[in-house]
Amino acid sequence: MPSVGEQLKSAREAQGKSLDDIGSELKIRADHVAALESGEFDKFDAPIFVRGFVRSYCRILKLDTNALVVQLNQELGGTESLSKDPALPGKKGFVDGLTLFLSRLNWSIWLPLIPVICIAVIVLFVLDVKKAQQEELERGDWIEKLPSAQYTPVRTNLLSPELPIPPVPVKPPSTNAPAAD
Length: 181
Description:
- The protein has seven helices and no strands.
- The chain has helices spanning 4-14, 19-26, 30-38, 47-61, 65-77, 94-104, 107-139.
């Protein structure tokens, strides 16, 4: 039975397509297409890439994808570096954990809730400050914090400290008044 790469190569040549044609459709370089056809799977970082490219290659050439992927998995088992997926690091950092958490959130639900949560936090903060102020007023210890009061008169005019009082006009008695009997 021919290998997966040989089947892909013969189907490509039967359809009259070049390595560059397939590479442009797969969005990979022509040398990677040649590596797929020759079975040099070690040029790829992980088997997931090989499987994905083979599936796409089969769709382009209109081949049976499932049969070729089953055969590919058997061939990948013989390749030491690609027989299993690379292990993820066991210890994740804070940024990795946060990124993973944020990627799993349903943003269609959480995005509208963010402003509501922010408003609620602000309201709770203001209420807490008001409560603390009320408790301080009730305790009465704020009186000791006031500065001592000293009266200093305000002078408006430095040249004349006191304003002169204008004379009050005296009204003479009226001559038209009725005579007293």
